Amino acid sequence: RKKEREEEGRKEREREKERRKKERKRERRKEARREG
């Protein structure tokens, strides 16, 4: 049982990472638009 929850947590972290990556991308695009 414990292992299962651990796996769940790992997936959760992976999703978090992905979300952050997308956020950064969007921010960079915003920056670029302001620059050019």
Walkthrough of the structure:
This protein has 36 residues and is mainly α. The protein has 1 helix and no strands. The chain has one domain. 94% of the residues lie in helices and 0% in strands. The radius of gyration is 16 Å and the shape is rod-shaped. It starts with a helix and ends with a helix. 0% of the residues are buried. The mean pLDDT is 92.
- The ordered H/E elements are H
Q: Whole-number radius of gyration? A: 16 Å
Helix and strand content put the structural class at mainly alpha
Range of strand content = under 5%
The count of domains is 1
Low-confidence stretches: none
Oligomer category: single chain
Number of helices: 1
Write the layout of secondary structure elements.
Blueprint: H1 2-35
In short:
With 36 residues, the protein is an all-alpha fold. It contains one helix and no strands.
Key structural traits:
36 residues, mainly alpha, 1 helix, 94% helix, 0% strand, rod-shaped
